[in-house]
Automatic annotation (TrEMBL):
Presence of the UniProt keyword DNA damage in the record: yes
Any Pfam family matching the protein: IMS
Keyword Disulfide bond: no
Span of the signal peptide: none
The protein's name: UmuC domain-containing protein
Gene source species: Idiomarina tyrosinivorans
PANTHER family: BLR3025 PROTEIN (PTHR35369:SF2), BLR3025 PROTEIN-RELATED (PTHR35369)
GO aspect biological process, one term: DNA repair
Family, similarity comment: Belongs to the DNA polymerase type-Y family.
InterPro entries: DNA/RNA_pol_sf (IPR043502), Rev_trsase/Diguanyl_cyclase (IPR043128), SulA_CellDiv_inhibitor (IPR050356), UmuC (IPR001126)
Residues in UmuC domain copies: 23-151
Keywords for this protein: DNA damage
């Protein structure tokens, strides 16, 4: 079935909008994105515009107007990656979408009228969401993708077919995106407007002009075959931010990192997933360094939780070189718990609280520094206890009272300074593996009245551990 309703989201300064959103300090400083090979201005912010810098202006002229203007080399691949992020954001409201070769977004809205009823409400929604994302957008509506694109490019935002047809007829050949050589040839043939061009028979277009011009003519009449693939959101999170200027300290990376973590939070929430680990790569000009692994003790998805763990891990680190960008990855995903934090029992809330504390300690001290004591069935104290993953299991319910704190190695003591409380408990075991023990254990108090676990073996008293 022929699709007859299209929206074209023209994003005239997508790279610039994203760059300033990641580094807000550039809102108050002159900034421009340039075509390095042609030495032309492609995008500029409001500060540069107010000083007279225009799109298409020569770089040298812009520098003459603003000597201290910051210029960033435009990279279409980077801008299209930003476009993909925006499409992922819009995906909760609209589908299908297509990415265009111009880093813009094309939307097939025929199937969306059951949800949004009319074009104006859908356009209003898209504009609102782009504004939330900090992106400037012009939305063109048309009966074909090319018509919607031409109207958007020329800032003509209409919402009915009749208005669109009339506006299209009024456009000149100069207002199209045809190659300049084709525009010149059409004008030389007396064809000045799209109305004149569209009235020409296809056979005549094919005879007088190239196949490219004939395809353009057909597209204006709605006879256009889409070659782009329908957008599908990624199944794993892998995003990168390129900074507008080098950053010397970790503090300067926290704001763009927060933006990336907010994107991750949105990514996880929309898929009802969580994770225990993210990877942060700082991008340098010449050096490469291993990723910073940020781990959580329980599955989390909120960006505030990730940001807290990251802050604890990097708060005392220094950057080995000026940073040019950041990459954030999250590949190990788990299903999000169906339990709401507001509805779970107090015990569950306390458990989550313990996991949060453990996660922060690990981020600050390192994974190996945080562990939980666990017990085996071996009666020998030195072998019975081992270090388990934090909160991996509950403490074993022991039939005999044992201290929670055992010394790494028993210490010899002078028994004359100790007061016996309870005992003895005889322990004769270990004959099967050549590590046999024959001891008498007592609970006793030292001169500071601390409760301890001591034992007698081979004519000597030893301190084994302390009771809480």
């Amino acid at each position: 079935m022929k699709r007859q309703h299209w929206l074209y989201l023209y994003l005239p300064q997508l790279a610039l909008d994203h760059g300033m959103r990641v580094q807000p300090e550039w809102y108050t400083q002159p900034l421009a994105y340039i075509d390095e090979s042609r030495q032309k201005i492609l995008q500029r912010n409001a500060v540069a515009k107010a000083a007279g810098v225009q799109v298409g202006m020569a770089v040298a002229t812009a520098r003459a107007l603003i000597p201290d203007i910051t210029m960033v080399n435009y990279q279409q691949q980077a801008e299209q990656r930003i476009r993909t992020q925006l499409m992922a954001w819009l995906y909760r409201w609209i589908d299908p979408m297509y990415g265009t070769n111009d880093s813009d977004i094309l939307v097939d809205i025929d199937s969306l009228f059951s949800l949004y009823h009319d074009v104006p409400s859908l356009v209003a929604l898209l504009k609102k969401q782009c504004k939330k994302a900090g992106i400037n957008v012009l939305v063109g509506y048309g009966y074909s993708p090319l018509v919607a694109k031409l109207l958007a490019f020329n800032g003509i935002e209409l919402t009915t077919k009749d208005e669109c047809r009339a506006a299209l007829q009024d456009l000149t050949i100069a207002q199209t995106d045809l190659p300049e050589a084709v525009k010149k040839r059409l004008n030389g043939s007396g064809i000045k407007t799209l109305a004149q061009f569209m009235q020409l028979p296809g056979a005549e277009i094919g005879r007088r002009f190239t196949l490219e011009v004939l395809r353009y003519h057909r597209a204006l009449h709605g006879e256009e075959a889409l070659t782009q693939a329908v957008f599908q959101p990624a199944q794993q999170f892998d995003e990168k931010v390129e900074l507008l200027a080098e950053v010397q300290q970790w503090q300067g990376l926290l704001f763009p990192l927060k933006r990336l973590l907010m994107q991750l939070s949105e990514f996880l929430y929309l898929r009802q997933q969580s994770s225990r680990q993210v990877l942060v790569n700082v991008i340098y000009r010449e050096q490469t360094h291993p990723a910073i692994v940020v781990k959580a003790a329980r599955p989390i998805w909120r960006y505030q939780d990730w940001l807290t763990l990251l802050n604890l891990q990097v708060m005392e680190k220094t950057l080995p070189a000026p940073a040019l960008g950041i990459r954030l990855r999250c590949h190990q995903l788990e299903a999000l718990s169906s339990e709401s934090p507001e509805l779970v029992a107090n015990s569950q809330q306390q458990g989550d609280g313990l996991h949060d504390v453990v996660g922060r300690l690990q981020a600050r001290l390192g994974d190996s520094a945080v562990w939980s004591p666990a017990a085996t069935d071996d009666p020998r104290p030195e072998i019975a206890e081992y270090r388990a993953q934090p909160l991996a299991q509950r403490f074993a319910q022991l039939r005999r009272k044992r201290p929670l704190w055992l010394l790494p190695q028993a210490q010899a003591i002078d028994i004359e300074q100790w007061q016996f409380i309870q005992g003895p408990e005889r322990l004769i075991t270990g004959w099967w593996d050549a590590q046999s023990v024959a001891r008498e254990y007592w609970q006793a108090k030292d001169p500071q009245h601390r409760r301890a676990w001591i034992y007698f073996e081979q004519g000597q008293w030893f301190l084994q551990g302390w009771f809480a």
